[in-house]
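Severity: low
Component: inverse-folding endpoint
Summary: output formatting inconsistent between runs
Steps to reproduce: submit the following structure tokens with default settings.
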């Protein structure tokens, strides 16, 4: 007996959007004068969950992009990358990009794998 995984898409998308809302709120509330590993950890965990959940449903474009976000936010948390205004803006842009991809999937659209890969590569170059 096979399970039609599409029946779970709406719940997946809502969960992803919830994580993205939380990630955005945490990014916007980071005080650049005080290092906050907890917020950066929450952001990294949110990206990790989106990565894993989307991989389970074979939304590899989103999963691959979320993996980049997870790694970069983890590096910021571990202080291998800077927590500065430019990096926060880049991560906010990444959150918006994932939101756009999730919205496209909600509307039964098709994702542009090459554009997502290029955007992810640019994100990796931007975060210092």
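Observed output (run 2 of 3):
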């Amino acid at each position: 007996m096979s399970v039609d995984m599409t029946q779970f898409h709406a719940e997946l998308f809502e969960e992803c959007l919830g994580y993205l809302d939380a990630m955005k709120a945490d990014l916007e509330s980071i005080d650049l004068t005080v290092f906050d590993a907890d917020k950066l950890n929450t952001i990294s965990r949110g990206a990790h969950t989106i990565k894993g959940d989307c991989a389970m449903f074979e939304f590899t474009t989103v999963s691959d992009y979320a993996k980049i976000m997870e790694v970069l936010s983890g590096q910021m948390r571990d202080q291998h990358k800077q927590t500065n205004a430019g990096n926060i803006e880049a991560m906010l842009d990444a959150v918006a990009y994932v939101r756009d991809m999730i919205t496209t999937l909600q509307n039964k659209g098709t994702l542009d794998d090459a554009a997502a890969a290029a955007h992810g590569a640019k994100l990796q170059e931007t975060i210092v």
